[in-house]
Design a protein that fits this description.
The chain is built from twelve helices and nine strands. The protein has 296 residues and is α/β, with parallel strands linked by helices. The strands form two sheets. It has a six-stranded parallel β-sheet, with helices on both faces. A three-stranded mixed β-sheet has the order 7-8-9. The chain is elongated. The structure holds nicotinamide-adenine-dinucleotide. Its EC number is 1.1.1.31.
Length: 296
C-alpha cells in the first residue's frame, strides 16, 4: 500500500480520496476548506497543517483542483510551490481538467527535480467519483503510466493511456466537446418533434432505435419525463453543471485555436452554453440546454 498526498477535496476530490483510503492506502489530505478536510478525515484519511507537510515523504501526490491557475500555483509558486518539497521519484497525478499547456509546463518543471508527472483528467462525474468507476485519460510516458495505473484503479474502472504529457487533457476536451454537440442536437431534435405534436417518449424511442441514437438521447435524455433517474426529470439538479461544461468548451476552443483546427460545431456549442450560463442556469445540469429551444 502506498503513501499518498491528496490536494483538493471538492465534489470530485473528496470521494476520490475516500476511495483511496478505503482501498487501504495511507492518504494525507489537504484543502483550503476545513469542512472538506474534516469530511474525508472522518472516512479514514489523515491530514496535516499544510499541503507542503502532506507531500513530504509521499510516493504519490494527487491533485483535483478547479483550473489551470490553481494547479500552476500549487506546484510552481515561488516559495510555497510543492515542487520544492516533493521527493525525487514521486509521481504527481493531476486529475483536474485544465489546459494541456499548463500540464506540460508543470511536467517539465517537476522533471528538473526527477519528479514524475501524469495529467489524468476524469469522466464520470460525482456519481462515478463516489462509486469508484471514473474513466481516467492519462498523459505521460509509458513508465509514468505504469506507475499511475494501480493507484488510479482504486478510483476508476477504465484507465486509458492517451499519449505523452498533455494528451489526457486533449482527450478530455475532445470528449466533452462532442458530448456538448450531441446534447444540443438531441435537444433541438426533440423540441422540433414536440412543436409538431409528437410525444417526446415516442420520438425518443424511435430515434434511439434509428440512426440518430446517441448517449444523450438514450442514456441521459434532456426532455423532462422521458427517462427516470436523470437530471431532466429532477428539475435539472445534480449531474454535470452548465458552468463546468462552459469551462471545458472554453478549453476546447483554446486547443482548437492553438492547433488551427476547424471546430465549428464546438464553437457554436460553446456560445450556446455561455449564453445558457449567463441566463442563470450555471449551476443546473448541462442537459438543461434543452430549455433554450422551448417555444414561447
Ligand atoms: P470543486 O470546486 O468542488 O473542488 C475544488 C476544491 O479545490 C475545493 O474544495 C477547493 O477548496 C480546493 N482548492 C482550491 N485551491 C486550492 C489550493 N490552493 N489548495 C488546496 N485546495 C484548493 O471542483 P470539482 O467539481 O471537485 O472539480 C475539480 C476538477 O475536476 C475541475 O477541474 C473540474 O473541471 C473537474 N471535473 C469535475 C467534474 C464534476 O462533475 N464535478 C467531472 C469531471 C471533471
Amino acid at each position: 500500500m502506498a503513501n499518498i498526498a491528496f490536494i483538493g477535496l471538492g465534489n470530485m476530490g473528496g470521494p476520490m480520496a475516500i476511495n483511496l483510503a478505503k482501498a487501504g492506502h495511507q492518504v494525507c489530505v489537504f484543502d483550503l476548506s476545513a469542512d472538506a478536510v474534516a469530511h474525508v478525515v472522518a472516512a479514514g484519511a489523515s491530514t496535516k497543517a499544510s499541503a507542503i507537510a502532506c507531500v513530504q515523504g509521499a510516493q504519490f501526490v494527487i491533485s483535483m483542483l478547479p483550473a489551470g491557475k490553481h494547479v500552476d500555483a500549487v506546484y510552481l509558486a515561488e516559495n510555497t510551490g510543492l515542487i520544492n518539497h516533493i521527493e525525487a521519484g514521486c509521481l504527481v497525478i493531476d486529475s483536474s481538467t485544465i489546459d494541456a499547456a499548463t500540464s506540460c509546463k508543470v511536467a517539465k518543471a517537476l522533471a528538473t527535480k526527477d519528479i514524475n508527472f501524469v495529467d489524468a483528467p476524469v469522466s464520470g462525474g460525482v456519481g462515478g467519483a463516489v462509486a469508484g468507476t471514473l474513466s481516467f485519460m492519462v498523459g505521460g510516458s509509458t513508465e509514468e503510466f505504469a506507475q499511475a495505473e494501480p493507484i488510479l484503479m482504486a478510483m476508476g474502472k477504465n484507465i486509458f493511456h492517451a499519449g505523452v504529457h498533455g494528451a489526457g487533457q486533449i482527450a478530455k476536451v475532445c470528449n466533452n466537446m462532442l458530448l456538448s454537440v450531441l446534447m444540443v442536437g438531441t435537444s433541438e431534435a426533440l423540441q422540433l418533434g414536440l412543436a409538431n405534436g409528437l410525444d417526446p417518449k415516442v420520438l425518443s424511442n424511435i430515434m434511439s432505435k434509428s440512426s440518430g441514437s446517441n448517449w444523450t438521447l438514450d442514456g441521459y435524455n434532456p426532455c423532462p419525463g422521458v427517462m427516470d433517474n436523470v437530471p431532466a426529470s429532477n428539475d435539472y439538479q445534480g449531474g454535470f453543471m452548465v458552468d463546468l461544461m462552459a469551462k471545458d468548451l472554453g478549453l476546447a476552443m483554446e486547443t482548437s485555436l492553438a492547433s488551427q483546427s476547424s471546430t465549428p460545431m464546438g464553437a457554436l456549442a460553446r456560445s450556446l452554453y455561455a449564453m445558457h450560463a449567463a441566463s442563470g442556469n450555471g449551476s443546473k445540469d448541462f442537459s438543461s440546454i434543452f430549455k433554450l429551444f422551448n417555444k414561447k
